[in-house]
Amino acid sequence: MASKVVACIRHHDWCRNTDLIELRKIGYTPYSRMFDSNFKPKPMRVTTRSESREALSALSLVLAANCDYSPDSEYMFEIMLPVEDIARRMGVLHVYEGGRKAYDVALNALRVLEQLDYVVVHRDRDTDSGQNKPMRIFLTESFFTSRGMSLENVREWLHKYRQWAISSGVAESMRDKYARHQLKMARLGINIDSHYSLKNRLKQIKRWVVSPELRAEKQRVTSDLEAALDGHTVHQLRPRTDTRRWQNAWIRWSSSQECPPSKRYTLEAVMKADYPELHVTDPERYYRLLLESAGVPLS
Known about the structure:
14 helices, globular, 4 strands, mainly alpha, about 5% strand
């Protein structure tokens, strides 16, 4: 999936990008002046300088190569790298003798992509510098369509990517990687739950890329699960006589509306970090501990 997106980006001509041309006619708004009501952007010449085009291309390539393309993730197209590593891979990270790090080229290029609506950026206070910095970055649908990729292309590539992940056995490791990323964000105190407009925008991106057939299938499975519960809440789990009692209980609870995907990924990541081999050696104990850590009554 990443290779196809990168190939389209490599052949992109920024001089013919209509979105960038319109933005330059209006003028850029730096992030530091975004909340300044007295600031008025100045129109610029239509043709972008070669240095700016190179920075935009380098940033786009790094974002596309390090994006989470799993349709099972709670939010689609999240960049799995901190902004400092993005700047390092772009080759624009400068480290001074005193240890201070600067990557203004990457930040300026990211701001341009944000104004073009090619990315959604969540900024938060950095504990080291005390400044607001990009903490979570997500690609939007415009990032793909502006490079000549159609909706059908993206959906087809994602479908093949998901099939490949399942058949090759890396789907579980991809979920673990996403869970570790979510856990890292939680430990850093980066939470977007209270940012409702941001969450709605990210959900809109996922609705754009997830096919109606897949949404209908998911709705059907959810309805079947709700019907199977037969009016009982998940807190009233009954003992089962089969050998997969706690595994089935975990599947029912984690598939319900009480458990968002991010919570399930976080719980599983913490449990596998504490008991690395337990899910293989003793699966029933592993799922029982998961239910206990989630606070689900077992009686």
